[in-house]
Amino acid sequence: FKVILCRYRTRMRSTTAACRDMLIRLVLLRSILPAAWGLRLTGHEPLRDAASPYRQQMDNHGDVRYSADVKIGGSRFAALLDTGSYDVVVLDGTNQGSTADRVRTLPSFRLGVHADVRRYGSGSCDVVDGRAPVAIGQHEAEQDLWLSEHCQFQAQRQLPWEVVVGLAPPGKARYVARKELDKIHEKTVEFRTVKKAVPDSLKKEEQKWKDRLKLALSKTPLLERFGVTSFSACFESGPGRPAWLTWHDTQLPGRAGTMTLPVAGNVTWSIALRNLHLNGEVQALGCEDGCLAVLDTGTSFITVPRSVYERLQGRIWERLRQVGRCDHSMFPDIVMEVDGGSLRLPPDSYLGFRQGQMNAEVGQFMRQDEAFNSEEYLGCQLLMFELHDERTPLGPMIILGAPFFRTYYTAFDLGKGQSNRSVHFARTGGTCDLSKTKAGSALERLEETARQPRTVNISEAQTPQWLTSRVDISI
C-alpha cells in the first residue's frame, strides 16, 4: 500500500523524501534480483552473457571415449557431446544404473505423449519424449529430450556417460520427413495420372510421415534452444589428456593458417574430399571420384570404406616388414585432398596397439587382424573402423572420429542457414591452446611429440551408432 501511495504522489508531484527513498530501494532490489536468480539457477555464479564463449572440459576415458557434465533439472549427469547425433537422449537404466528413472523423478521433468524406437549397432531402445531444464555453462533452457526404456542389447556395456547430447546441425528429422513426403507425393501423382486408386499402404505411409513431421516441428534442438551458432571441438593429443568443447567459439575464422570448408551435407557436419593417399605416394588408397567425410566427436576411430582399409593394411604390412618396429616416425601421414589444399592424419591417428576383447558391437566395424599379432609385427595394428557399403550422394562415406580432433582444432559454424554452414580447421599443437600454436601451419605435416604408439582397449571403443538410424543415403 505504501508503494502504491508513493507512486501516486510521485505522479501528482507531491512525493516526500521517505517516498523517494522507498522507490530508490525498490529499483535497487529489482536490479539485484536477476543476479541472485542466476546464482540460484547455476549453483555457482550469476548467469553470464549467453553469447560469451564457454570452454567445457571433456574427461578422457582410455583415449576412445570422452564425457562432460551437464545438468538436467538441477542434477548433474555425465554426457557424450556428440556431433554425429541430433537429440538429447537419456540412456536406459540397463546401461548406467537408473538414469532414466532419476530423470523421471525430477520435479521439473514433464513427460510427453510420444513414443519411438531408437536402433543402435548392438540393439534397440523404446524411447518416450519429455521436457526438463538443461544447463551447460551459462546456458539454461527448457529442453526437449528422449528417455530410453526397455532396451535390448546383444551385450551390456558400462558407459562413462548417462546422456547423449546431439550437436549435429539442427533439422534432420524435419528434412527427412519432408523428403519422404515428397517421394510419396510423386507416387501418388503417378497413380492418379493413370487413374488408379492410391493404395491404402501408401496413404498410411503418408500419414506416418506427416505425423513425424508434425512431431519434428514441435521439437527444438539444443543448439537452437541455446542460441548457439558456433562451437569448437579439440582433443589434446597426449595419452589420457582431456578434450575441450568451446561454445560460441569464433577464434578460427580469419585467423592465419585456418582452413575453411563448406559443409557438404544437409543434415550432418560433413566435408567433401578426394584422393586419399599416403604422403609421398602417388597411388591412391581410395576416393578418386570423391568421398564425404562426417565429423563425429562420438566415434573412437577414423572410419573408412572397406576398400580403403584393405589397401592401407597392405601398405602398412609392407612398411612394417621394412622397418621392423612400430615407430610412428617411420610411417607416413594419410593425406586427404580438399578444396584449396589438404588435411593430414599422422600415424598416431591410425596405428598403435590394441588390448581387450572385441565385443559384437565393435566387431561390426573393426576386423581382428591376426597377422598383425605375430611377433614379426610386435602387435602393431591399425586403429581404425571400416564401413562395408555406406554410400552418400557425394560418394563413399568416411567418418573422422576422435583422432581427427587430436590433430585439428575444429570449429563448427551454422552460419545463416542450411545453405551456408561451414567448418574451420587449424592444427592443435597437441594442447588445444591456440595462443601456443604457431599460426600459418595448418597444412604442414604435424610434428609428433611422442613416437610411442598409444595402446587402446578396443572393448571400450565407441562405434558410430547414428548410422543405423539412416533412412536413405541423405547425409
From TrEMBL:
The protein's name in its UniProt record: Peptidase A1 domain-containing protein
Protein's GO biological process: proteolysis
GO molecular function: aspartic-type endopeptidase activity
Residue ranges constituting the Peptidase A1 domain according to the UniProt record: 66-426
CDD domains (alphabetical): pepsin_like
Keyword Nuclease recorded: no
Protein family membership: Belongs to the peptidase A1 family.
Record has Acetylation as a keyword: no
Organism: Alexandrium catenella (Red tide dinoflagellate)
Keywords tagged on the record: Aspartyl protease, Hydrolase, Protease, Signal
Spans traversing the lipid bilayer: none
Signal peptide boundaries: 1-38
